[in-house]
Amino acid sequence: MNLKKYNSLFKILIAAIIGLIIHKVISHFIIPKEFEENFIYSTPLLYVLFALLSVVIVSLLAKVKETAENSVGYAFLAFTTLKMAIAYAFLRPIIHAHLPKTPSEKLNFFAIFIYFLAIETYLTIRILNNKQ
Q1: By C-alpha distance, which of 47, 48, 52, 53 is closest to 112?
Q2: Contacts of 31 (CB under 8 A, 6+ apart)
Q3: Rounded CA gap, 56 and 69, in Å?
Q4: Which of 87, 85, 34, 83 is nearest to 61 (CA)?
Q5: Which of 11, 23, 57, 58 would be 79's cystine partner, CB 3.0–4.6 Å?
Q6: At what angle do helices 102-128 and 43-67 cross, to 10 degrees?
Q7: Torsions phi, psi of 106, nearest 5?
Q8: Buried (b) or exposed (e) across 57-86, using 16+ Cβ within 10 A?
Q9: What dihedral angle (degrees, nearest 10) is formed by the CA atoms of 79, 80, 83, 88?
Q10: Is the alpha carbon torsion for 15, 17, 21, 26 positive or negative?
Q11: If 0-12 CB within 10 Å is exposed, 13-18 middle and 19+ buried, where does residue 128 land?
C-alpha cells in the first residue's frame, strides 16, 4: 500500500484535529458559553464539513495533476469557487439571524473557512511543486 498517495489527506485530518482543539481552547476564553451553545452550526460540525470539502478538493487536484498537469491551478480556482458557494449556502442562515450571538458565529465560521483555505492552498502549492 502506497501511503505517499494519501499523505496530503492525512495532513488535512491532522490539521483539522489540531485546529479544532486550538479553536475550542481559544473560543472558551473569548466567546460566551451561552452564545456558543446557541450557534446554528457547532464548531466541530463546521470542522468536519470543511475537512471533508478540503479532502475532496485535494483528492481532485491530485487526479487533475495525473491527467492534466498544467491545469492544476485552474482546477484549484474552480474548486475553491465551488467551495465558497457551498460555504455561502451554509452561511445564509447565520447572516439572516439578527441575534446578539450572530457576530460571534460569523467570526467563528469565517475563521474556520480561512483556516481550511490556507491548508488547501499550502497543499496545492506542494502538489504543484511535486513535493506531495
Answers
A1: 47
A2: 104, 108
A3: 18
A4: 83
A5: 57
A6: 20
A7: -65, -45
A8: bbeebbebbeeeeeebeebbeebbeebeee
A9: -140
A10: positive
A11: middle
Q: Can you tell me whether residue 11 is helix, strand or coil?
A: helix
Which set of grid coordinates corresponds to residue 109?
A: 465560521
For the entire predicted model, the pTM comes to 0.88
Distances from the Cα of 90 to the Cα of 47, 94, 131, angstroms: 13, 8, 33
pLDDT reading at 3 higher than 70:
no
Q: Which amino acid is at 41?
A: Y
Burial class (CB in 10 A: 0-12, 13-18, 19+), 37: exposed
Q: pLDDT tens digit string along 4-27?
A: 667 888 999 999 999 999 999 988
